[in-house]
Design brief:
Largest sheet: 8 strands, antiparallel, barrel
Radius of gyration: 16 Å
Number of domains: 1
Strand order of the largest sheet: 1-6-4-3-2-7-8-9
CATH topology: Hypothetical Protein Pfu-838710-001
Strand content: over 45%
CATH superfamily: Hypothetical Protein Pfu-838710-001
């Protein structure tokens, strides 16, 4: 399945929440999220991301293809499986030769508007940012409503942009 998203750096969370509420966006949840990235020479050479994510009692195992940037939108094939067995997935990844390469934490607040996931994100050592995921036309609609245009889009990984080491990024 294709993942299409944009990020917008250095947002004002209170302003974003006010606009979301004014437009009847649906609040979904607020979580402390742990993301563990696994890799080896194969995944590094192919630009593949292998991630194990914990949100409360849920574990989400994700594999993403190499990133393409189209009209400022980050596009990747993404495959996910939800499980409640973090330890088994972790052991399987190690058995097939993947090693943990990064551990990050994020406080993520999920909203839904125009069939887009609108996520206010805070990670240690960097300013709060916004991630909007959905169909390209809906992403554009949400971004515009929130006061942003294509010139504000960011398709990279915020810790890299701010030159913050994300190998062990914890609150």
């Amino acid at each position: 399945m294709a993942e299409i998203e944009i990020k917008i750096l250095e947002i004002q969370p209170s302003k974003i929440k006010r606009i979301l509420k004014q437009n009847n966006a649906k609040f979904i949840k607020k979580v402390l999220q742990t993301n563990i990235i696994y890799d080896n020479s194969h995944t590094q050479n192919k630009g593949v991301t292998v991630r194990l994510r914990k949100e409360n009692d849920n574990t989400i195992f994700t594999v993403k293809s190499k990133t393409k940037i189209v009209n400022g939108h980050k596009i990747r094939d993404e495959y996910e499986i939800e499980t409640d067995d973090f330890k088994s997935i972790e052991k399987m990844l190690e058995l097939i030769g993947l090693k943990m390469s990064a551990y990050t934490e994020a406080r993520r607040e999920y909203w839904n508007l125009f069939d887009c996931s609108v996520e206010i994100m805070k990670m240690p050592k960097i300013p709060t940012f916004l991630e909007i995921e959905g169909k390209e036309k809906n992403i554009i609609k949400v971004a515009k409503l929130l006061g942003f245009s294509e010139k504000d889009y960011f398709a990279g990984y915020p810790p890299v942009h701010y030159k913050v080491d994300f190998k062990n990024l914890r609150f």
